Amino acid sequence: MNRRFHFISGLPRSGATLLSAILGQNPRFHASMSGPVAGAFNSLLGELSGHNEYSVFVTDAQRQRMLKGLFDNYYGPEYSQEVVFDTNRLWCSRMRHLHTLFPQGKVIACVRHVSWIIDSIEQLVRRNAFQPSSIFNYQAGGTVYSRADGLANGEGMVGSAYNALKEAFYGDETANLMLLQYETLVRHPGSAIAAVYDFIGESPYPHDFDNVSFQADEFDLRAGTPGLHTVRRKVGVRERTSVLPPDVFRHFENDAFWLDPALNPRRVRVV
After folding, report:
1. Residue 105 — left, alpha, or beta (φ > 0 → left; ψ -120 to 50 → alpha)?
2. Which among 2, 23, 156, 192 has the fewest CB atoms less than 10 Å away?
3. From CA 90, how far away is CA 53, in angstroms rounded?
């Protein structure tokens, strides 16, 4: 099959699962939550480097074929769709690789105000107070302050994705990059999805934003974070007050660099 690959990446808790659930309504598309391909890609890339004494026998052309083969083999006969969206936060740090392997492939980076991302994760932690989460290596200790710091540092769930997003945003492969704001997706899903279709060059599909479904309960339970990938049936805005202390919320409120046109020298499309 002459399958086309696109990629969903960006920040956690920013609508990637919701976007996948919506796109998955199109029978020509496959889209789901983060999967294992990006991790396998990184591992294989490392094993094909000088780390392996036999790398002297491997050419760049062979590396590229082997890395592309990960996608071709993972999305094998079990997947009948013509268009595949692979989801992982790592893809923003692999823009050059993706452009080389899939010149027509697009990367849709989901973004959201960082304060609300931290808030969303803290809500999950509090909701599952008796189940330590994989987000914090199943450690039961800490406070909202230590959790926020851990999430936001360069190795944390949010900080690492944020740094990868900035690398992609200011890199050389921005023609294949679009940022989709969570706020746009939930407030104006029709226009948000229309922008995605336009970006990837596909004909529109009549999506049902009042009947969205996605299930990953077993995965979320194993991760100690029930509700991590829960998608509400009807797309819409849920107004609420933040559970974060005001000083923690304010600490991240100016991190949405994508909102300032002066900080977008390559004119990346932001929806």
Report:
1. beta
2. 2
3. 26
Q: For residues 153 and 127, which has the higher predicted lDDT (pLDDT)?
A: 153
Q: Tell me the domain boundaries of the chain.
A: 4-270
CATH superfamily of 4-270: P-loop containing nucleotide triphosphate hydrolases (3.40.50.300)
Please tell me whether residue 131 adopts helix, strand or coil conformation: coil
Residue 65 pLDDT: 94
pLDDT of residue 222: 65
SS3 assignment, position 85 = strand
Q: What is the pLDDT of residues 57-108, one digit of tens each?
A: 888 999 999 999 999 999 998 999 999 999 999 999 999 999 999 999 999 9
The SS3 assignment for 216 reads: coil
The region that residue 80 occupies, defined by phi over 0 for left and psi between -120 and 50 for alpha, beta otherwise, is alpha
